[in-house]
Design goal:
Structural class: alpha+beta
Strand content: 5-15%
Helix content: 25-40%
Strand order of the largest sheet: 4-5-1-8
Low-confidence stretches: 119-128
Radius of gyration: 22 Å
Shape: globular
Number of strands: 8
Order of helices and strands: EEEHEHHHHHEEEHEHH
Distance between the termini: 30 Å
Number of helices: 9
């Protein structure tokens, strides 16, 4: 805190506010009417060998014209815990992730999310874990594809310098869940603050008040309507919704996710934020915040790339200041 007892950076009451995550989940499947062997459902590699995935998005002009949020969608795997997906590959992945070996295969947060354990908003909890016999039956029926996946993914995940970030299973019926990932519309009422509780290190724990709005939900639903219209008008397929009440389905999935941002909002003036365009806390020239906490919006993309870009820009700026 500063000399007057006020929290540093809270000169205008914005510190801890504008807390954002992402709107993410799945409320629909894509049923393609094209050749399933030509569906680009998984990872590809660019000219530099970097793993990339194709996404459904909107042109900037179209999004502005229709008032859509910054949102994308991509083809995903069926929920791993439920063996009704009839995929030996997905069943093998589920059993591996749910076993003690899972900690070697994937980070805890990702592993828990994929297996539906202890992650808020996940569709499967401890009491809904996939029946082991059902998964074993899938593996036996799909033995050839499962064995090929085990060899291919095992190599790409652990041997090369640039490792595969994940996997996606081919669907011969050409029906894939559509995962959406979009911006969380900023709100000053969405915030974090310090509580009186302490963590094991003696530091104050956070009191979290993460808020979503009807506008967040409406944007997700309307984006899906436009994707469905596009597929149908081009004769490529259609969306099949997993619920009759789409708004309720989106609300059910609204949660924190893995990409928190906001709380030290970037702004042009001290009255409207915490840090300036150089990431310096307003009123300071020797205190900087290079973090997703400075984001003005959460966008639709994972946060790390932008954090690195901001950190590199700050490094260049500090280097020039020191040279002067």
């Amino acid at each position: 805190r500063g000399p007057g007892g006020q929290a540093i950076g809270d000169h205008a009451g914005h510190l801890g506010r504008w807390y954002m995550a992402h709107m993410e989940g799945s409320i629909a499947r894509v049923r393609f009417t094209t050749d399933p062997r030509r569906t680009l459902y998984g990872y590809e590699r660019d000219v530099d060998g970097v793993y990339v995935r194709r996404r459904l998005s909107f042109r900037r002009g179209f999004a502005l014209e229709h008032g859509l949020p910054n949102i994308v969608g991509w083809l995903a795997n069926s929920e791993l815990p439920d063996p009704s997906h009839h995929s030996g590959v997905l069943s093998l992945a589920y059993l591996a992730l749910a076993s003690p070996l899972g900690r070697v295969v994937a980070p805890d947060a990702q592993r828990q999310s994929l297996t539906g354990v202890a992650v808020p908003g996940a569709p499967y909890g401890h009491s809904h874990r996939g029946p082991v016999l059902g998964h074993l039956r899938n593996i036996l029926k799909d033995a050839r594809a499962t064995a090929r996946f085990l060899l291919d993914f095992g190599y790409s995940r652990f041997v090369p310098r640039r490792r595969a970030p994940g996997f996606f299973a081919y669907r011969p019926d050409n029906v894939y869940p559509l995962q959406y990932h979009g911006e969380h519309i900023p709100s000053s009422q969405s915030r974090v603050s310090l509580s009186d509780e302490r963590d094991p290190l003696g530091m104050p724990k956070l009191r979290i008040d993460l808020r979503f709005s009807d506008a967040d939900v409406d944007g997700v639903v309307r984006a899906h309507r436009h994707w469905d219209d596009y597929l149908r008008s081009h004769g490529r397929g259609r969306l099949e919704y997993t619920s009759d009440d789409l708004e309720a389905a989106v609300w059910e999935r609204a949660g924190g996710g893995f990409h928190q941002s906001g709380t030290t909002r970037m702004s042009a003036s001290p009255e409207s934020g915490v840090v300036d365009h150089d990431l310096a806390v307003h009123g300071f020239r020797d205190l900087f915040v290079a973090s997703s906490s400075a984001f003005v919006t959460s966008s639709q993309a994972n946060s790390t790339f932008m954090i690195v870009a901001l950190a590199l820009r700050l490094t260049d700026s500090l280097k020039k200041d020191l040279e002067r």
